[in-house]
Amino acid sequence: MGNPKAFLEIGRQEAGYRPVHDRIHDFGEVEQTLSTRERKLQASRCMDCGVPFCHWACPLGNKAPEWNDALYKGDWELAYRLLNSTNPFPEFTGRICPALCEKACVLNRFNHEPTTNREDECAITEMAFQEGFIQPRTDIKRNGKKVAVIGAGPAGLAAANDLNHMGYTVTVFEKNEAAGGLLRYGIPNFKLNKAIIDRRIALLEQEGIEFRYGQTVESVAVSQQLATEFDAVVIATGTPTARDLKAPGRDLKGVHFALELLSQQNRVLAGMEFSKDERITAKGKDVLVIGGGDTGSDCIGTAHRQGCKSVTQIEIMPKPVEGPEDPQNPWPEWPRTLKTTSSHEEGCTRRWNINTLEFLSAATVPDGFPVGKDASPDHVAAVRIQPIDWKPNPAGGRPIMVEKGKPEIIKAELVLLAMGFLKPEHPEYPANVFVCGDSANGASLVVRAMASGKQTAAKVAAYLKDK
User: Fold this and answer.
1) What share of the chain is helix, strand, coil (3-state, %, to 5)?
2) Which end of the chain has fewer surrounding CB within 10 Å, N or C?
3) DSSP state of 189
4) Quick check: helix, strand or coil at residue 117?
């Protein structure tokens, strides 16, 4: 701890975002960076607490006090070595992690100005790549055993990386045309430039991991083929099934799952072409996003960059508490407070306690309701919604939804369903098959998926050692 008074003398400084009028016209990363001097000052604010709750809160167990101290002292290589000892891909979490560690920071306890851990780890990793501190390992000794990893998302990549470094020959099977999972096909480029993923995948390939793209592996194939061809199999296929909304009119054109829009837009930016009928675009349209989480926020930012007319986001749950503190989840727990993202700042009407009743076309909207010039009987034109409230359940358990106010109609020529994902069910596998990440635990954070991948790699190694 180089400056024991820094947290008293230096305030929290975030890099911030590019101006709205500039960033909404492209898909470049919205977050800016601090200068090297400013970044060191921010690292100096870490207090090296006797009980580092940041370490406790991080699913990966990142040792923020140690690498922040190295960063403050200008030892960027040591900072990266310390960071990478627990975090295999800090360039990902440094951009998209909600930073559980920062909410658990002791500085957040008394002045709500925690250490800028997320930005610090991103800066450390970028400097490490820039200065050549990150090089493919050439000292890996193979042990003669083979492991298959199904799914190249954050969990699968973390498992493959650890197993490869342990000496196993790792083959990754991926159904898409490139690696990354939701990092590539769910998170917009304005939050995570896909060149960042390509850079890491190239490193993994140089270290000996084989990637086989365009290969969907079914459960039967895992049990009957891969489990016999490989010494162990890791399933990291995520949560591919989005939660649907079975309301009347769901089959109308213009009603899409959020990932249909997000993955297609990312593919367009990667050079893939789609026909006019295939293309999902918000250009010139009133957009309705159903779901108040991060995926819904990503839809808002994408809609703006595609040139939408307006965006409304509705959520069936109550509005979260505003301000830095959550009485239901006090420090050092994660506060479930109102979150305003960079996409929300770009313009959005947000509403809570709203239930969706029906999707309407030009043929089913009330007489006189304004519809777009291209409206058709088979295309969504509006959505009927119902303000609701939640009452305590006398029998306990989930609260009861009750109507509150009259139903109303929102104009919407593009509707995006961003209501989360369903936890997959798995059959019984052979003893050498392991499931990790969202596929095992349900949809969660990238950092938790990576932690699960690392834990599963350790389980695989222990199993094969016993064998």
Assistant:
1) 35, 15, 45
2) C
3) T
4) helix
